[in-house]
Amino acid sequence: MNKIKRFDFSKAKYSAVKIIVLLNIIIVLSAFQKHPIKLTAMLIEYDPKSNGLYLECKVFIDDFEKSINKTLTKNINTSNPSASDIEGINDYFNNYVKLCVNKKKLELKYKSSEVVNTYNVFLIKFENIKVNFKKGDKFEISNTLFFEEYNYLQSNRMTVRLPPFITEDHLESRIDDYYIPYSL
Questions:
Q1: From CA 109, how far away is CA 112, in angstroms rounded?
Q2: pLDDT given for residue 67 in this prediction
Q3: What percent of the chain has pLDDT over 90?
Q4: CA dihedral sign, ordered 60, 61, 67, 72
Q5: Closest by Cα among 108, 112, 82 to 95
Q6: pLDDT of res. 6
Q7: DSSP category for residue 107
Q8: How high does pLDDT run on average in the chain?
Q9: What's the structural domain count of the chain?
Q10: Rounded CA gap, 20 and 128, in Å?
């Protein structure tokens, strides 16, 4: 004669408790991540009176340290960059951010920086670059910051001001679309 199998609710309760505990652990651990957003913010601004092109970039400190320590500089000090840290910052940005006028690459040189610990942000300012934009010039931007580390999660926001040609343009550089050409 066949015996009827009975469902053991005590084992089911135990399994449900294990699942709930596991989900709670995952939620708590994800709350300790530094930040889930992979983002940079860059300002590129031209002053026609001084013929100066100004660039500044805001990056999350932990993302920047992870990327630059992996590629160029070990144990960078963002609070008080040494001469070798500044050289690494210059090399890093000239490798991952390319600005060209009529196919001529512009060299980025570190000017100053500021750490905003409250927001985990490192603000880097670069020296003004002498440029005399004329009607018909080609200006190209390529921004691939952190794509090697974060791939499709990374987004690089840029504000471009090139008066009198461009009043203000807001752009986003993604891994599959990071080249921005302008005809002035």
A1: 10
A2: 87
A3: 61
A4: positive
A5: 108
A6: 47
A7: P
A8: 85
A9: 1
A10: 56
The C-alpha R_g of the chain, in whole angstroms, comes to 24
- Closest by alpha carbon to 153, among 30, 37, 34, 31? 37
Minimum mean pLDDT among 70-79, 80-89, 113-122, 139-148: which range? 70-79
| Within a domain: 12 | no
Domain containing 39 equals: 35-183
Tell me what pLDDT residue 89 has.
Answer: 94
Has residue 21 been placed in a domain?
A: no
Kindly report the length of the chain. 184
Task: Report pLDDT digits (tens) over 51-86.
Answer: 999 999 999 998 999 888 876 667 888 999 999 999
How far CA 52 is from CA of 7, 43, 113, 123, 155, in Å, comes to 78, 13, 19, 20, 27
Give the per-residue pLDDT at 16: 57
- Phi and psi torsions of 110, nearest 5°: -55, 135
CA dihedral 116, 112, 101, 165 (to 10 degrees): 60
pLDDT value for 34: 60
CA–CA separation, 135 vs 141, rounded Å? 18
Of the candidates 99, 73, 71, the one whose C-alpha atom is nearest the C-alpha of residue 86 is 73
Q: Is residue 6 part of a domain?
A: no
Is position 79 within any domain? yes
User: Which run of H or of E encompasses 97?
Assistant: strand 97-101
